[in-house]
Structures are given as structure tokens and as C-alpha cells.
Amino acid sequence: MLKHSLYLSCVFFGTIVGYNFLKYFEVFTKNNFYSKKDYGILGVSLFAIIGFFYFFLLLNTKVQNHLLMGGLFVLFYPFLRKLGWMKLFLVSFVVTYVTVYIPYQSFKWLPIDYYITLLQRFIIITSLLIPFEIMDSKTDAKTLNTLPQLFGINRTKVFGILLVIPFMGLEFFKQKADYSAIPIGIITILFINFTTLERSKYYTSFWVESVPIFWLLLHLFF
User: Fold this and answer.
1) Which residues, other chains included, contact 12 with Cβ-Cβ below 8 Å and sequence gap of 6+?
2) Model confidence over 15-49: pLDDT tens digits?
3) Does the reported pTM lie above 0.85?
4) Alpha helix (H) residue ranges in the chain
5) How far is residue 181's CA from residue 211's CA, in Å, rounded to a whole number?
6) Domain residue limits, the chain
7) Residues contacting residue 35 through CB under 8 Å, at least 6 positions apart
8) Signed CA dihedral, 93, 203, 82, 84: sign only
9) pLDDT in tens, 173-209
């Protein structure tokens, strides 16, 4: 596989750049800096950009090209966001592309586990985004046509929960199964099920976003 430390560092800084770009796109473009927080975000973003390019230049050309391709999808996100139902799958695609597809490009022969993981990653990211879609429906313009707007909150929940079932089931078809997928799947189902419009913003921005961190801890200690 790739030199892990270089690639992981590049993706780490790239994630900060991409996240801040998407979240504060209008603030940066309109120069609406009102507080020290805004300048702090700008400073962190600039530092992350430097870190990203430093590690990016240390990677081989093939990986660089793939990362640039992923970056293009991120750049177009603010414009594609108007297609509300599509943004969910675009985010899942980009995360899967960066975290599964690219790291395996140095392999001459790809095992069946790779293809299963590719599908699993897309599925679980899509499911984890469902609570965000529901919570955002409080403020999203009705013209966005997000999944909760098109099908209602309950049906969107069912969709997200049903996706988790193949995510867990596919683990049993791997040659080297990683059963951490089972608790992660159960936790995801619970978070989707208990998502309501009355929840605090920290329900998604802290608890749901902590699921990947918990998954990492499972890998490190079990």
C-alpha cells in the first residue's frame, strides 16, 4: 500500500481544507469577517493548505492525480448542493474514493475484500449522513429537494437503516473479516432512529461525527 504516514497526513490536512472550504465558502468569498473566530478559521485553513501541499508533493504522481480528482468534486460541491438528494451520495463517493479507492492503487492484484470494503464504505457513509440530512431539513430551502423533503423524515430513516444491513452482512463474505463493522452498524442504526428535529445541533456535530473516531479506536485496541 501507500506510505501510510505521508498519505494519512496529506488526507488529514486536505480534510480540514475541504471542510472549511465547504462550511465557510460564503464567508471567505464575501470577506464577511466579523470576529476573531473567523480569522482563526482562516488561519487554520491556511496552515492546513500548507500542510496539505507539503505532504502532497511527497506522494507519487499517480496518487497526486487521484487526489486532485477528489479535490475537484469538493470544489464543485457548493454548486451541486442545489441538487439536494445528490449531495448525500456525492459526499459518500468522495470519502470512499479517498479512503478506500486511492490507497489500494499501488496493488497489482486486488483481493475480494477490497471490493467489499469499497461498497461498505459508501453505504456506511451514506447512512451516517442521514441524521445530518434530517437535522438540516429545518433550515434547508424547500427547493433543495433533499431526501427528507422528498420522502419525509420517517421514510428517510428507514432508507438509512436498511442500508446498514448490507454493510454489516457483507463483512461475513470477507476473507479477513473485521467484526468492528457490527457494533458500528448497530450504533449507526440507533443514531438514525433517534434523530428528531428537536435534537440539539451537537447530536450530529458531536455524537454522530464521533462514530468514525470510535471505529478507529476499535481498530487500535481490539
Assistant:
1) 51
2) 999 888 887 776 666 666 666 777 788 889 999 99
3) yes
4) 4-23, 25-30, 36-56, 61-80, 84-96, 112-136, 147-151, 153-169, 181-193, 202, 211-221
5) 11
6) 1-59, 78-221
7) none
8) positive
9) 999 888 899 999 999 999 999 999 999 989 998 999 9
